[in-house]
Specification:
Elements lengths: L16 H21 L3 E2 L1 H4 L1 E7 L6 H11 L5 E4 L7 E6 L7 H13 L6 H4 L7 E6 L5 H10 L6 E5 L5 E6 L3 H12 L10 E7 L1 H29 L5 H21 L3 E2 L1 H31 L6 H33 L2 H23 L1 H25 L10
Parallel strand pairs: 1-9
Antiparallel strand pairs: 2-4, 2-8, 3-4, 5-7, 6-7
Helix pairs in contact: 1-9, 3-7, 8-9, 8-10, 9-10, 9-12, 9-13, 10-11, 10-12, 11-12
């Protein structure tokens, strides 16, 4: 069997626990400060907007696509190459989710009010159905008048029709989809390079409200997973083991998020999935170490002192931990190198987590176990002392 360290290796890992814990505390603190000050670069999944993948018939540059997007009306668009260079694909990200939005609602409401509508603007439009406006009038109105009114304030390809809904004269105005705007716009701005029938490879939109809810759900899922792990470790091993495992996982997540914040890597649903994967990967490593500590403690191997037993256990599992991590690291780094898009983002975050998780399984979880064991022993000693000092009540003599 391949081994990096020879059998019988005795590194004094526990002896370095103070230095390692201080180093980790500094890293975690720096990561928290980075996230708090620099913030996270939330992707479309968490802040709302659209991911648009465009395919061109010939070579174009990021600047060409960015300028065309700006002329179409996507002034905030960010553009980056997507996939192999020979595919001529680009990812365009914009906060727009439809041609109609809250900033244009005032103009739409004013135009419809001028035609006689008495509806409040908040009753006309729903952010969850951004491509339509519902409006009513005291008397019947020609749908063509509504179309002309919307075109007069800059909208194109508008449709309007009367609907049967309750009483009164109710109408629905439909705007062209964002996809249609993209296809028509790029076909006009880059006619030689963009084919509207095949150029729009993929488009995903997430509303701002949905993005915020996904962000909250993601944080909640992470906290609940840590709580579940705390309970699981306490039941499977001992209450002394649980804090070390959870602290190691918090350490992994905090440092990973700090690095993501430092380099302003995009935080999306795949990033959250990779963070949860890191939690599972690190926990698996920690449990292997904890199992060996429990076996050696029960069998009396490694000495009678818990520090010696932990040191022996860490040295015994060192080869397994390093080799497993290296194998996974090599597989993931290939995905980072050859992959693109969402899978590359997932793999990059996972790569950071593998390094940090391997470190924490060896140098964070076990030293915390020593601290917890000392605390439990102190509590037990204090309890015995209180019991020994409690006054004994003598039975009263019988009369």
């Amino acid at each position: 069997m391949f081994q990096i360290f020879k059998p019988g290796t005795k590194f004094d890992i526990v002896g370095k626990q103070k230095i390692l814990l201080i180093f980790s505390a500094l890293l975690v603190t720096a990561s928290i400060v980075l996230v708090a000050t620099k913030g996270l670069n939330y992707g479309i999944d968490f802040k709302g907007g659209s991911d648009i993948i465009l395919k061109f018939k010939k070579d174009v540059t990021n600047q060409d696509v960015r300028e065309a997007a700006s002329r179409i009306g996507f002034e905030d668009a960010s553009v980056q190459a997507f996939g192999p260079a020979e595919d001529n694909q680009f990812l365009v990200q914009t906060k727009e989710v439809s041609v109609m939005n809250e900033t244009k609602l005032d103009a739409v409401a004013a135009a419809l009010t001028a035609l006689g509508s008495t509806d409040a603007k908040e009753d006309m439009w729903d952010i969850n159905q951004p491509d339509r406006v519902d409006v009513s009038f005291p008397s019947e109105i020609d749908p063509k008048t509504l179309v002309s009114s919307m075109e007069g304030i800059g909208f194109k390809a508008v449709e309007a029709e009367k609907v049967t809904r309750g009483t009164g004269n109710n109408y629905v105005i439909r705007f062209r989809s964002l996809g249609a705007k993209v296809q028509e716009g790029f076909a006009k701005e880059m006619p030689d390079a963009f084919d509207p029938s095949t150029g729009l490879s993929r488009m995903e939109t997430v509303g701002a409200r949905v993005g915020g809810q996904l962000r909250e759900d993601g944080i909640t899922s992470l906290l609940l997973s840590l709580l579940a792990i705390l309970i699981y470790i306490a039941i499977r091993f001992d209450i002394r083991y649980a804090p070390g495992a959870v602290l190691a996982l918090f350490h992994d997540v905090a440092i990973s998020m700090g690095i993501i914040s430092l380099f302003q890597m995009e935080v999306s649903l795949p990033t959250l999935a990779s963070i949860l994967t890191i939690v599972g990967y690190s926990l698996n490593d920690t449990i292997v170490v904890f199992d060996r500590i429990r076996e050696n403690y029960t069998a009396g191997r490694g000495g009678s002192d818990l520090r010696s037993i932990i040191n022996t256990s860490l040295n015994e599992t060192l080869n397994r931990t390093i080799i497993t991590s290296m194998t996974t690291f090599l597989a993931v780094i290939v995905i980072v190198w050859l992959g693109s898009g969402l899978i590359q983002s997932f793999a990059t975050t996972l790569l950071i987590g593998i390094v940090v998780g391997t470190y924490s399984s060896l140098f964070i979880a076990s030293p915390v176990l020593i601290v917890m064991d000392r605390w439990v022993q102190n509590q037990q000693a204090a309890k015995k002392l209180r019991q020994s000092q409690s006054p004994t009540i003598e039975p009263s003599p019988e009369v």
